[in-house]
Amino acid sequence: MTRCKKMTQLISSTALTLLFCGACGVNVPDPQPEPFPNPDPDPINTNGPDPVDPNPVDPDPVTPDPIDPDPIDTNGVDPVEEPGPADLVGVWRLVEDLAFANHVEYDARYIQFAEDGAAMTFGRDEATSVKECNDIEYRIIGDTGLTFESYEYGREFLVYRFDGFDKVIVTNQRGVKYTLIREEVVPIEYLCQTMEELSRIDTELERNGFGDLEFDGEAFWFNTSPGADIAMVSTVGVVGQSITGPTGFQFMIAMQGGDIWTHDANGSDEVVKRYTQAGVEVDSVDTRNELGFEINMQTAAVDPVTGELFLFGKASETGRQSIVRVDTSVQPNRLIEAVEFEIYLNSLSHDGQYLWGLDDFRLIKIDSTTYEAVETFNLKPIGFDSVRVATLDERIFVMMDSHGLGTVSIAEMKPSGAIAPLGLDHESSIAH
Predict the structure, then answer these.
(1) How much is the average pLDDT of 352-368?
(2) What is the largest CA-CA distance in the chain?
(3) What is the CATH number of the domain that holds 208?
(4) What is the total count of domains within the chain?
(5) Neighbours of 202 (CB within 10 A)
C-alpha cells in the first residue's frame, strides 16, 4: 500500500511539473496558437511579438495596413503641398469693390478661370439689375505674374500670391490689392443668359449708325443714310420700296400704326415727330416745352397695346440716362413718368409687355413698369456685332454688321437658357 501511494504521488508531481514549468527550459506550446500565416518566431510570449524583436510579426494580419499616399517621405511625415498656377482654375469671389475696374463696366463680384487661358468676370448693376458677363483672356507669367486682356479694355499686368488654396491676393500696377475667395459656383443672380439664332437674312444694304430697326409683321425698316431713306426689307430678304422722308426728317427711332417717329434734323434731338409714310406730319413731342423734362433722345419704342411712347436719352438737367414715358393719345402730349436708367442703350423696342434694350453685346429685357432688368442676354457667343433690336409679340430680331463689311444682316433669336460659364454647369461645377 505504501509503495502504491508513493508511486501515485510521483506521477502527480511529474504531471504538475510538465504542466506549469514554462521557465524550466521546456518549450511548451501556446494554449491558443496565434493566427499568423507563419510559425511564431518567438513562441515564448503569448500576447504578440516581443518588444525587442527586430522583425516583429504583424499582430493583426487580418486588417490591411494603411497605404501611405505619399511614400517618398521616409520619416512618416508627408511634405506640405503648396498651391501653384494650376490652382487658379475655378470660381472666385471678389471681396473688395471695384476689383478689376479696368475690365468691367459695373462692379465685378465673381471671376472664373478656365484651363485654356479664358476667364470671365460677372458683375451686376444694383440700381437696374442689369448683369455684365465679360470675356477676358489671362496668361500666367512665371510664378506670380498674371496678365488680363480683353477686346474692350486692353491689357493689364497683375501680381498674385496664394494664401492657402482658397484665397488669392492680387495686386494691380497701382499697388491696389484685391482679395479672391474660392467658391464652388457663380450664383445664378450673376449669370447672364444667351440667345439661340433661329434664322438670318443677309442684305447688301449699308446701315446708318443712328437709325433704329422696326418690324411690322411683314417687313423690316431701318435707316440706310441720315436725312434720306428708310429701307424696307421683307422677311425673306427682298428689298422693297424705300421711304424718302420730308424736309426735317432724319433718323427713324420708332414706328406706330405704320407711321414713323423720327428725330427732327431742322430742330434738335429734344423733339421727335411722327410722320405718315406719305410724309405728312401728324404729331410731335417737345420734351422741353411740352413735357417739361428735356431729354436728348437716343432711341424710342411704342407699346403696341397702349400706344404709349417710351423715349430714351440723357436728361439735360441731371445729365443721367433716363426713360421717359409719354401719353400721345391726348393733346398736348402728357408726361407719365421719367425714370433714371443709367445703362446706355443704343436701341429700344416694346413687345407689348416688356421693353427690350440693346447695349452692344448685351440685350436687356426690362420690366416696363418697374424699369428693372428682368434678364440680361450675352450675345457675344453668337459671334457678331449687334447694333439694333426689334420685337413683335414674342419674336425678337437683332440687326448686326455682316462679317464686318458694314452691310446689314437681321437674325431672329430666342432665349436658350443660362450660360454655363466657360463650359461649366453652374448648378454642379466644383471649383477645386
Answers:
(1) 93
(2) 156
(3) 2.120.10.30
(4) 2
(5) 14
Residue type, 229: D
Tell whether 100 and 177 lie within a shared domain: yes
Supply the range of the domain harboring residue 358.
193-420
Reported as a single tens digit per residue, the pLDDT across 133-176 is 888 899 999 888 999 887 667 788 899 999 999 999 999 888 98
Cell numbers 502504491 correspond to 4
Residue 418: pLDDT over 80: no
- For residue 107, the tally of other CB atoms under 10 A from its CB is 17
Q: How confident is the model at residue 354 (pLDDT cuts 50, 70, 90)?
A: very high
Q: pLDDT, tens digit, for every residue of 284-332?
A: 999 999 999 999 888 999 999 999 999 999 999 999 999 999 999 999 9
Q: Which of 171, 190, 209 lies at the terminal end of a domain, its last residue?
A: 190
Q: Which cell numbers hold the place of 366?
A: 426690362
Interstrand relation of 259-264 and 177-183 (parallel, antiparallel or unpaired): unpaired
CB–CB of 118/108 below 8 Å?
no
